[in-house]
Amino acid sequence: MNSDKNDERIATQGTINRSDAAGIKIHFIVAAFILSCFFISACENDEKMIEDWTKRKVMVEEGKNIESYLSQESKVKAKLTAPLMLRYEADTIYVEFPNTLHVDFYDDSTKIETWLDSKHGKYFETLNKVYLWDSVIVINIKGDTLKSSDLWWDQNTKLFYTDKYAEYRTREKQIFPGKGLEATQDFARITFKQPTGTVLVSDKNFPK
């Protein structure tokens, strides 16, 4: 009789132990599931954070009534004035002038040899180049005039160039039109890629 009770106690005790083991197993599964969800969430957050960090961010600085000097090797090459300047810091740092600009270009003696007006312009700092477009007019001290819809100025080579249509007008009342042009900053040398001839104009039609 006592033996049977002991056996029953042992059996009951064995059943309790198995129930505890099942409970531990369930708790382990739940904990593992929660932990895995935490890691998945953490990974998603990390990926989103990395994506936000690696997105190209453009910083913009604004300036008004700008007067800026472009220099190279401690020599002033040009003076730029504009009512509005926007400086963008992206893959390439550049400065935009959306509301007209005026540039005075200097020779090696820091004397003005050419000046320029344009409705729009961009200065690429790393390239030392200025891109100008919309009603670009360049005039040298002799009174010769260069007009184009867009024009590049290379600060390193001191050259103007364009692939678009351009007109060069001399003070002798001659007009040289053509497509594609390269000119030195002082207009000492001007080359058209596709010249279309020479036009003579009268005094009353020639702009002063």
How much of the sequence lies in strands comes to over 45%
Tally of individual helices = 1
Order of helices and strands: HEEEEEEEEEEEE
Computed structural class: alpha+beta
Strand order of the largest sheet: 2-3-6-7-5-4
Tell me about the largest β-sheet. 6 strands, antiparallel, barrel
Query: How many strands in all?
Result: 12
Assigned CATH architecture of the largest domain: Sandwich
Domains (count):
2
Shape: globular
Radius of gyration: 38 Å
CATH class of the largest domain: Mainly Beta
Features:
single chain, 208 residues, alpha+beta, lipopolysaccharide transport protein A fold, 2 domains, six-stranded antiparallel beta barrel, 12 strands, globular, disordered N terminus, disordered C terminus
Topology:
Layout: H1 2-54, E1 59-72, E2 75-89, E3 94-97, E4 101-106, E5 112-118, E6 120-124, E7 129-140, E8 145-154, E9 159-169, E10 174-184, E11 190-195, E12 199-200
Antiparallel strand pairs: 1-2, 2-3, 2-4, 3-6, 4-5, 5-7, 6-7, 7-8, 8-9, 9-10, 10-11, 10-12
Question: How is this structure best described in words?
Answer:
- By secondary structure, the chain is an alpha+beta fold.
- It folds into two domains: 1-55; 59-200, Sandwich (lipopolysaccharide transport protein A fold), CATH 2.60.450.
- The chain is built from one helix and twelve strands, in the order αββββββββββββ.
- The protein has one helix at 2-54; strands at residues 59-72, 75-89, 94-97, 101-106, 112-118, 120-124, 129-140, 145-154, 159-169, 174-184, 190-195, 199-200.
- A six-stranded antiparallel beta barrel has the order 2-3-6-7-5-4.
- The termini are far apart.
- Residues 1-21, 38-42 and 203-208 have low confidence and may be disordered.
